[in-house]
From TrEMBL:
Gene3D superfamilies, per the entry: 5' to 3' exonuclease, C-terminal subdomain
Stated name of the protein: TfoX/Sxy family DNA transformation protein
Annotated TfoX C-terminal domain residues: 7-85
Length: 92
């Protein structure tokens, strides 16, 4: 069996601090990320790790980039605005 951490580390924008968070909440592949979606994955991570980790807007962008298979800086301005609004709402 392939280690999910190894597979997740192959995705764009995901690094050694993000991947353990994903595995902990049951995200074991890109397919899991896509099926659950950026906002829900971030919501689960946020409520699990908010006291232990600094979860930023860039973390949210990184998840979106991993799902879209692009560098987070290439996410459209419109989508970034949606994610920023989501981020603001979850931090309240």
């Amino acid at each position: 069996m392939i280690d999910p951490k190894v597979e997740l580390l192959k995705l764009k924008n995901l690094g050694p601090k993000t991947v353990p968070h994903l595995v902990e909440i049951g995200i074991l592949s890109r397919n899991d990320l896509v099926a659950i979606g950026t906002e829900e994955v971030f919501r689960r991570i946020y409520f699990r790790y908010r006291d232990e980790s600094r979860l930023s807007l860039n973390y949210l962008y990184a998840l979106e980039g991993a799902i879209e298979d692009c560098d987070w800086r290439w996410i459209s301005a419109e989508r970034k605005l949606e994610l920023k609004s989501f981020f603001s709402s979850i931090k309240q």
